[in-house]
Amino acid sequence: MEQRSLPYLLLLPATLFLCVFFIYPFLLVAWQAVSQDGSFTLEHFRTMADHWKFSTAFWNTILLAMAVVPLQLALALLMATLVTRMGAGRDVILYIWTIPLGISDLAAGIIWLAIFEQTGFLNSILSSLGLIDQPTTWLGYQDKATIFIAVVLAELWRATAIVLVILVAGMGLIPKEYYEAAEVFGAGPWKRFVRITLPLLRPSIQTALILRTILAFEVFAVVAALGGTNLPVLMGETYVWQFDLQDRHVAAAYALVILAISIAFTLVFLRTLRVPKEARI
Amino acid sequence: MAEISIRNVAKRFGDFTALHSIDLTVEDQEFMVLLGASGCGKTTLLRIIAGLETPSQGEVWIGGRRVDHLPPRQRGIAMVFQNYAIFPHLTVFENIAFGLRMQKLPQAEIDRRVTRTAELMHIGQLLKRYSGQLSGGQRQRVAVARALAMEPDVILMDEPLSNLDALLRLEMRAELKGVLAESKTTTIYVTHDQVEAMSLADRIAVMNQGRIVQAAEPIEVYRNPAARFVGSFIGNPPMNFLPARKADNGSWQVAGVRFDGPQAEREEIAFAIRPEDLHPAEDGLPAKVRVVEPLGPHVLATCEVEGHLFRAVLDSDIRLRRGDTVKLAPMPQRIRWFDPESEESLQPHR
Amino acid sequence: MTTATATAAATAADIRRPARLLFAATIVLLCAWVLAPIYLLTVNALSSPDQVNAFPKSFVPGFEMGSITFFLQFGGVLRALFNSILVAGITMVLAIGLGAPAGYALSRFEFRGKGTFRIMVLMTRAFPLPLLALPLAVMFIRTGLDDTAIGLAIVHTTLALPFAVLITFSLFSGIPVELEEAAWTLGCTRLQAFYKVVLPLVLPGIAASAVFAFVISWNEVFAAAVLTIENRTLTAFLLQNLDVSPLHLKFAGGAVLVVPALIFIFAVRKYLFAMWGIANR
Question: Hey, what domains does chain A have and what are their CATH numbers?
């Protein structure tokens, strides 16, 4: 009897917690987005969509994710491959490369602000090289492109580490014999990477892509630190509607939009990178 | 006094039945080996006796007490696990003392028992070490010492030697037998290794597909298998089987040779003989030699009799070549017969 | 014959040398990519406010504590620092307290509903969790949890709980069941076996996942900004003051945010990869 009920007893606290603070609030936020004083309405979505910043924020968010995530995957794959070929010093290098894992997006934004701001390090280098006389403004309200690039760099710098960790863990699960067998059959390093590493790494790549894409849609503090309100993104607009414009309903509508694109992309990755259970390591 | 009695015990995991209605009695101080291939249910049965699994039905009695509703700690048992289960965060001393501390024995008694069992298992010099600093054989000794220190009525062992290399296994086997005979406990020992079973057991219970097929003394199991499965599982190489057709006067025709056999209302039964109970003779079974493997004292000949696989262990002086046909005669008193459908022995037991 | 082999070997070595150089150079470059921005932030944090705002900027710190002391004396900073630690501490306790029993149940029992629970936990990772702060803000006002450390810690726990469950699940799965079973046969109850055998073995790992939960909370910006008004955490405080605060304040704040994270990642580095290897599946 004890055996039967014990697991449920152990799961109970976590389950209750998630029901009250995860599932219930999501229902609330959904209801808030589509209701006004207790009756159903799509008014809030209309308000949201009609606002001039919405489509900019939407496309900025999508474009940022499209630019950041593939670059991160490529960079992390390179790093992971290098690490697995290292002998001595592997642990040190891995530690260094995973440092940004502990750094918040806000701190990362501030760090890159130190480089891009008007009296920052980038201008200091350029002027000491004699390329500019006066400090250039990189993050001003007309400099959308450079703000975008700065955000991409900061995100790439900050959040590649999590992809790296997932990939290195995944590569650790691939037995060495497969590579040795491939080498015996005449596959060079590139072929081995394409034919063995990538396919066997697919579950890890899937996890990394889903996690990173969702987090990329939530980009907020980096943009706030580097661009202020000059580069609107969905999460930032949500914050603005909640506080500055004091309209919880529209903020909830924004939340649902972020949720919707997150789910859509998750489903796409689950579909396209599916690995049948029998084909796993 | 610790007689173990298992009554009508069954275990089902969902749709899968791991054990079908098992009945088995193990006498006080008896060494019982549960022998079978992996997945036959032997470990499940042991774990039910230990209290690590709950049976779906039936009763388990130890020393005249019904225990199937009790947790392991109240059953008066000790167990040795396949992978030893030495606590890695405790020294060898504390591992052996673990159960004694749980019983809240006085320190002096704990010291005495730990020292005694450690000496018995020849690990007295290792008491301060941790599991990570021990070899496989040493861990095995600690696991046994930990069980013996409890001075239990019953010791349960789950394939305790299977993780050791061959030479060490041989050495530990002999040592275990001595130590356990000394300790006067009832032992149930699970293994898939028939040689281990033969050498250790007072009685062997051969299991197959969740049933005990035969429980008897080792030599009985070897000589008089109660079922075709036992003959084909025990012995290396195992028993040979050939179809026998009914002839007149209660005799049976096997590959053109007549043998006296049992009375049976069947047209065809199975004739069985162990490979070492064959010798070349003119009136033997015609066997076509396929493979010859010299093994030192013997030569193992893998042959074909009327299209059936047939092995013989012969004296190495006999010259054999692939493709030869030899006549192999069985020792008449060693021939066994089996019913083709129930697969049970047709030999009246002597 | 021998000369031919020697020449061949030499050519192979010649080809290998540039490849090795490239390999080493890439690794060094990637290390610089990760470390340089942190170094630059340190330069700013360890310079006086005048040096921070000067142009062109020096690439070596002035080793003045001016910025840091200014930051620490700035109104509300010490309180925000205290709030951050408090919230992260509560999050750590909640996440492990709720997550570890669930992780244990998942690793030790087969029971109906196990799959459903796992999916619920994994699902939380697919949602933009900080958005929970919006409906919870309303809920908390009703229950009096608004603008309290415990309220924010609850939101951070929904972020940290899935990780806590998955990490502790992998930790407990790493302890052979036989160790527990051996303890039962040696006279332990389930509870005794747990704290005498399992707990000592998983404690370092539990500590690592607690640290991980702490970092998640310490770094979180959005929910912190939404849910606190008077009791700002450090991240919320910095975000709110981004527009108005001088540069040296931002950089000193950034440095204060980064330092604990670096220490924490160093402390749990051993567990990072094992954790993700399991969490992948």
Answer: 62-247+258-279 (1.10.3720.10)
**Single-letter code of the amino acid located at A30:** A
Residues of chain B contacting C184 with CB distance shorter than 8 Å: 51-52, 71-73
Residue B66 has pLDDT above 80, yes or no: yes
Tell me the three-class secondary structure of chain A, residue by residue: CHHHHHHHHHHHHHHHHHHHHHHHHHHHHHHHHCEECCEECCHHHHHHHHCHHHHHHHHHHHHHHHHHHHHHHHHHHHHHHHHHCCCCCHHHHHHHHHHHHHCCHHHHHHHHHHHHCCCCHHHHHHHHCCCCCCCCCCCCCCCHHHHHHHHHHHHHHHHHHHHHHHHHHHHHCCCHHHHHHHHHCCCCHHHHHHHHHHHHCHHHHHHHHHHHHHHHHCCCHHHHHHHCCCCCCHHHHHHHHHHCCCCHHHHHHHHHHHHHHHHHHHHHHHHHCCCCHHHCC
Q: Domain C75-279: give its CATH architecture.
A: Orthogonal Bundle (1.10)
Domain ranges, ordered by start, for chain C:
2-45, 75-279
Q: Which of A99, A118, A242 sits opposite C226 (nearest CB)?
A: A242
* Best to test chain C binding among B101, B102, B104 (most C CBs inside 10 Å): B102
Per-residue pLDDT tens digits for B2-49? 899 999 999 998 889 999 999 999 999 999 999 999 889 999 999 999
B285 phi, psi to nearest 5 deg: -80, 135
ipTM: 0.84
Predicted model pTM: 0.82
- Other beta carbons within 10 Å of C7: 10
- Predicted local distance difference test score (pLDDT) of residue B349: 42
Chain B interface, mutation test: which of C111, C114, C186, most B Cβ atoms within 10 Å? C186
pLDDT at residue A10, as a whole number: 92
Kindly indicate the confidence band of residue A48, based on its pLDDT and cuts at 50, 70 and 90: confident
CA–CA gap between residue A82 and residue C23 (Å, rounded): 8
In this prediction, residue C280 carries a pLDDT of 46
Burial classification of residue A37, based on how many CB atoms lie within 10 Å of its CB (0-12 exposed, 13-18 middle, 19 or more buried): exposed
pLDDT at A1: 39
Q: Which domains does chain B have, with CATH numbers?
A: 4-229 (3.40.50.300), 239-338 (2.40.50.140)
Two structure tokens written together for A60: 């900025």
Reported confidence tier of residue A9, pLDDT bands at 50, 70, 90: very high
SS3 B280: strand
Q: What is the mean pLDDT of chain C?
A: 82
Quickly list H helices, B91-165: 92-102, 107-120, 136-149
Mean local confidence (pLDDT), A152-159:
92
Name the band, by pLDDT with cuts 50, 70 and 90, for residue B1: low
